Records
---
Amino acid sequence: MSNQTSHQFPVYSHPNAASTVHEQKPVIVRLENVCKIYGFGETAVQALADVSLMVEQGEYCAIMGASGSGKSTGMNIIGCLDRPTTGHYYLDNLDVAQLGDTELARIRNLKLGFVFQQFHLLPQLSALENVMLPMVYAGVKTAERRERAVAALTRVGLENRLHNKPNQLSGGQQQRVAIARAIVNRPVLLLADEPTGALDSHTTQEVMQIFKELNASGITIVMVTHESEVARQTQRIVWFRDGQVLHSHLLPEDIAQVASL
Ligand SMILES: Nc1ncnc2c1ncn2[C@@H]1O[C@H](COP(=O)(O)OP(=O)(O)OP(=O)(O)O)[C@@H](O)[C@H]1O
Ligand SMILES: [Mg+2]
């Protein structure tokens, strides 16, 4: 379903694709020499400086780094919420760096799921209605919307809370609704920006268990976090410093050493 519209966009083909001997996993995120500059002239800030990064299908990555190192800027570009100033971004082989706002919004809805620190649920809607909403924009029929939303909420253990509004749910439950909403359109990539930042340690563990299960079922996940304990539970840590990728495959045991430099 997610590829229905791919013919409308420039499709990236790796120059060596035909001659590749070993089977490679599809690349979901391919940033090539991405720069992002905010502002102009004397006040210009280079938030990303020549970032190249690849995430393959099925990976589970944490993005870490000091405050101001470019993590959110990078996530905004990966999430098609912003565009690089220069460089290329291929999402699921689509060249998205130059797309207009409407096309980007469409790609976001079709291909991406988002989870944020503050959940961002609509307070007047029930858990079920919140999860059904992205499918309205995707044009899914009402009966199927309901069926898929119930399945997604069941997957995160909330089958008994379908009709509760966000203020009738705990923080961890609200984040689980947000995760159900993020996966209900079957995205190629799940992006999470500090998903456990507003949760206590017990609830953080519950939410991390859900991410782990989703990844085990094949969902590709990229997560920004400040918490080493959270990053440790992913498969791969990408470390940003001063707008660049300092390490693209940092081991959990090396976090403390890199963080102290
Ligand atoms: N809209 C903006 N306008 C101008 N400068 C910006 C803007 N957004 C970010 N920056 C600057 O770009 C740099 C990278 O910011 P970014 O938000 O990506 O960092 P971060 O790694 O997410 O930090 P944090 O851990 O504090 O969230 C910083 O120097 C920041 O001040
Ligand atoms: Mg940030």
Note: Residues 1-9 have pLDDT under 50 and may be disordered.
---
Amino acid sequence: MLGSSDTIVLDGLFEEWQFREPIYTDPEGDNLGDTIDFGSIYIDNDQDYLYLNFELNSETNLQNGSDLILYIDTDNNPETGDDFNGLGADLVYDLGKRDGRYYHDGFKKTIGAPSLRFDNDANCDFRHI
Ligand SMILES: [Ca+2]
Ligand SMILES: [Ca+2]
Ligand SMILES: [Ca+2]
């Protein structure tokens, strides 16, 4: 049975992430004028969901006016999906537009905001770095 530290709960609290190692840590203060300065990035999954945790320099509503786009190569194959810097992104999601697409078995499916879940519902709650 999984303990509480093994379970990601979308509740606006991030204590369960302290038991995980970041997959990447971006330097602080390197945003060069952009509004968003990424810090550490964490990833985890269970049998149903993929969980992403981005540390940002300030509280940001990614679903409103953001120009961030998420690219995920879900089949680890650069030949499938959208080409983005050599990545074959099978899932592409524009966070600010709440719109995206998913490629699977040669089919393209449009995905909207209900396909994704955000901590604290409409307003993402991000931890400050
Ligand atoms: Ca939580
Ligand atoms: Ca940074
Ligand atoms: Ca791919």
Note: The pocket of calcium ion (ligand 1) is lined by residues 9, 11, 13-14, 16 (CB under 6 Å).
---
Amino acid sequence: MEASMLEEVVQNPNPYPIVAELAYPDIWKLCEQARDLAWDPAKLDFSDLRTADIPQEVRLAGAEWWSLRAWMEHGATPYGAERLRDAIFGHQPFEVKQHVVNFIQEELRHHEASFRIADALAKYQPVPQSDYFKKIIPKFHDEKEERQMSFFAGMAVNTLFEQLSGELLQARYENAKFRSIREACALILRDEARHIQFGRIVMRRFFDQITEQDKEMLGKKFAKKLRGSLLNGVYAVVNLPEDERKRSARARALAAEYGLGATHPDHEVAIIAEGLAKIRADVAPWNVPIPPIPEVEGPTNGPARRAA
Ligand SMILES: [Fe+2]
Ligand SMILES: [Fe+2]
């Protein structure tokens, strides 16, 4: 073996102890469900989309929309990869590592189902056409921000977003008129329900050990990510620059009008507001203060204003 390779080996963190003893039966239950409810996007039949009698303009709008969904689902995988590394070298028990592996696998199959839909409608776009999306999408996952939080606190913040995207996905499922899109959305929703459940378990198990200061930081990070990136064209178009907002909103509106599993831009903010209200209620028992989100809740509806 070359000396330089040897150096690389010893630089790896110590993997021992590799914990096999079950510590969190509720997390293991999610792992069992994930195994029982596995599905294969390549086996879904998208022929109804290929043969649908819809204008080309609508096909292109739908392909853009489902490409965006594919990029977003893919955005969860680098985050998952970092957490898997943390879980392994943080000596987490087997069920925690298994959950993170499942999370990565599931987000990757949501990505796959989405690009297959885009392809069946017209063509999947591997790179966004707009410069704006090219710039903003790589910023969705900021590992520097993640590193400021403990492993479980960071996972809990992530699942708050799972909850919001679950609410939007539910609306998109209800919008879908095509069998294959409905089926894909239902299967994705079933996976997301487990991701949300994991967040609830984490909060229940770990949030009473977190300091008030850390809770404040969690709330701030949640608000920052929501406002800074997810309202910029992924969850909703409200924070996009004017010209991009109009173009993006038109494509979404068209996809929604034809029942391609999209949300109309005029309805997205209301859905997010409802989701946000549920999240505030969920984190209330642990006193995690989420700053007001004026784009979604209006300038006077945030808790800070209410308290004033
Ligand atoms: Fe997903
Ligand atoms: Fe998810």
Note: The chain has one domain: 23-43+55-124+147-299.
---
Amino acid sequence: MDNDPVDTGSPERGDVQPDWDETYDVVVVGAGTGLFAAMAAADAGLKVLLVEKSASFGGSAAMSAGIIWMPGNAVLQEAATGDTRESAESYLDHLVGESAPRERRLSFLEHAPAAVDFLRRSTPLKFMHIPGHPDHHEDLDGASVIGRAIEAKPFNMASLGADRKRVRASDVKAPVPMPITSVDYKWLVLLGRAPWQAVPHAVWRLIQGLGGKLIGRDVVAAGQALVAGLLTGVREAEVDTWRTSPLLDLVTEGDGITGAVVERGGCRIRVRAGRGVILAGGGFENNPVMRRKYQSVALQDGWSVNARENTGDVIRIAERHGAALSAMDQSWWSLGLPPVKEGGTPTFMLAERSQPGSIIVDATGRRFFNESCDHMTAGQIMLGQRGADAVHVPSWLVFDQKYRNRHIFGGQFLPGLPLPRSWYRAGLAHRAATVEALAEQLSMPGLVEGVARFNLLAARGHDDDFGRGDSAHDRYWGDPTNTPNPNLRPLTTAPFHAVQVVPGDFGTCGGITTDGYGRALRGDGSVIDGLYAIGNCAANAFGNTSPQFGATLGLGLTFGWVAARHAASQPVDA
Ligand SMILES: Cc1cc2nc3c(=O)[nH]c(=O)nc-3n(C[C@H](O)[C@H](O)[C@H](O)COP(=O)(O)OP(=O)(O)OC[C@H]3O[C@@H](n4cnc5c(N)ncnc54)[C@H](O)[C@@H]3O)c2cc1C
């Protein structure tokens, strides 16, 4: 049952009582990928409490595109992708190398298929392969060009009843109610260019979404569907859930963790967790002090698209109880437009930096990387994390009117329509009749030369400078009707536009150091009994890399399953 916050009458705020107020086998902290860990623990016969800081379920997972990267799973086999454990292992070995312990990725590969099996049998969700959504680094042995990403099919959230309103809303919404899967999105951004592909997707989703509303259905896709399905599973597994109930502290007895201190209804409640506490409280993306300490002074608050509640609480609490931290300089970087005003939401860019007729330039007006590269690499380059590169914050996405006429921008602004005035007022967007005038507005002496150089290469169809369009990843987000290179076209049609670009993220991915079972480790490598960390509060098992877009959910779900089963296999502490 979902327990709304109540005043339990005891104890008073600030008092930590010596005795337990509640007794469970496992306490899961955070209702993003933690929902899945809670289900898995309950499935193993444990009595489970899930505590969540916010008033809603789902965290960033509910706001996400819901793409999941878990190699070797049955959905991939059924789609005849030919994916094998061996090829995924080779890919990860080449990609991750020494940047994270091998034990973690081997555990991920071993358990991901079983976790997907459990996801399918314990939720009402149906999953599909995302065809042609390639791994980020196709040049590495074992990379898949046909892709290993899967996503949930649209799901009728009305089946949740009262819980429907408790699923965290997404910041990105279609102008009319319609479920948009990742497969749909790829084509919808090309509505003006490939209507024969885009229109059938749009019509079918409109029937499901708008039409469904008329008969009382609420059909959603992406992260909304994933979380609605997980919440259904949580309810069926009879996990107790406390919303608006943040973890405040852990309880240490002897060498291990035996419980959690949770704020509920204004009180501090001590909850015994006989088999362990699974931390799934997200990263520290919205903690500016931690970000500046561990990552970069160039980062500003509000650039992350993830849930605002993710302020690194559980990482700091675990550290106080002896957990080591690693990979703290890393996030699941992505590029985006900063919020127009304080407290606003950033606009992230997916296809925008891959479509032809655009470039990204630094403050001098010159290109400095392959704009279409994967999101992790793009953020690292912009922040100067790759070699001795300079920091390029902010940068500018420069494009011509033809680009604007052809493509949806920021996931929501239809082709041809002007960009919001507030962007211009805030100095985040500029527009001019010539490249020279734009260069002057932006005080970018090199822009004219930079555009001229790019135009020359684009006209020839090959980016000799940075190889944009050379990989399947680049081309996936490009415009297939633009030949010979779906990512390259000269900027020729006035007016010319510039929109500010900064390194945002889909969450930080440095955090608690864990082993192959998701158990928290101390600095000397010893295990903290009874403490697990999964999702973004755990250090990225892929080190400073991202193998594919769905890796973050893939890791959270897999290690949620692994940690829950490990906890279930432990003797109950007396
Ligand atoms: C727009 C967008 C698109 C994305 N697309 C994808 C995608 O397609 N594929 C992918 O793999 N990833 C994607 N991501 C990233 C992904 O959603 C997150 O990285 C992932 O959800 C992380 O899982 P998590 O469980 O660690 O954190 P979250 O899902 O954020 O859940 C953490 C939860 O912990 C709660 N919490 C925080 N502190 C406490 C506390 N003290 N006590 C109790 N609870 C606490 C938070 O309120 C939150 O509900 C996307 C993210 C966004 C925003």
Note: Residues 337 and 488 are 22 Å apart (CA to CA).
